Amino acid sequence: xxxxxxxxxxxPEEVLILEEAxxxxxxxxxxxxxxxxxxxxxxxxxFIRGMYGITPKLPSSAGFEAVGVVEEAxxxxxxxxxxxxxxxxxxxWKEYVSVPANLLIPVPAGMTDEVACQAFVNPLxxxxxxxxxxxxxGDWLLITAGASAFGKLAIQLAKQKEIxxxxxxxxxxxxxxxxxxxxxxxINTEKEKLPKVIMEKTDGGxxxxxxxxxxxxxARALSCLKTNGRMMVFGLLSLENIPLNxxxxxxxxxxxxGFWLTTWIESLNQDEREKAxxxxxxxxxxxxxxxxxxxxxxxxxxxxxxxxxKQGGRNGKVILTS
Length: 322
Prior knowledge:
Elements: E1 2-6, H1 12-15, E2 16-20, E3 30-39, H2 42-48, E4 60-61, E5 65-72, E6 84-88, E7 96-100, E8 105-106, H3 113-116, H4 121-133, E9 140-143, H5 149-160, E10 164-169, H6 175-181, E11 185-188, H7 194-201, E12 206-211, H8 215-222, E13 225-233, H9 246-251, E14 255-258, H10 261-266, H11 270-285, E15 293-298, H12 302-309, E16 317-321
Parallel strand pairs: 9-10, 9-12, 10-11, 12-13, 13-14, 15-16
Antiparallel strand pairs: 1-2, 1-4, 3-5, 3-7, 3-16, 5-6, 6-8
Helix pairs in contact: 4-5
């Protein structure tokens, strides 16, 4: 089978190679999946660079999220051969993956591969963060990197709950698109002073920040919080830690906390997990919440896909197909 792997951590364009490998041997509790589509996420890039919370066991394939078809069922028959499934695993940029059968999620009828392969990480992260945030109708939420896949999903899900959303972008042409999704305030941080605009337009600040960027922008977003506000950090697109203002934390009684999807899902009981997946899949199937695709490439053209992923102003996911 074909697989995209790296034998040392580094920049993806420098360390990733395409090679032939043996098809993985599955364990009794696993199903063998023929992967049909996977999207490129920021976490994939950080993993390849050795900067993610999971350390790669080299050599390693890249990618965490995918959709595929069951080629061989597990011994208990939890999933049947031919079933199309959504799954997460370490290393999905290959033709076949073995995954514990109890972690596979059947793809709802009518959902395309392009949607299914991005129906897990970003939608569930946005859902989980909103559920955890304590935000209610009428509250203000600030989202950094509003035009990201996560940002657009969080805007749409917040709108369902009548939460008011402000978000940051770096290009004016992204403003109208985000407002059409439900954002009430979109700030171009290349031209506008974020704290000043927020304080003027939101009646003195926001209740919660979802930060994916870190660095200086994360610090500015922190200063936009009302007293007793909460910043939830789930990404580090700038690759720079947030320089925290201790005075702000103390005198405004602010809270800064991390959010990782894996930890949140593990905290749920079975009913809560089923509700989360049911809610997200229903919204995606009815297109009350939409995801975008920028381009698709066959797995062998992963280098071209990475170039497309790095394009400035990209408004959709780049997907690797088989």
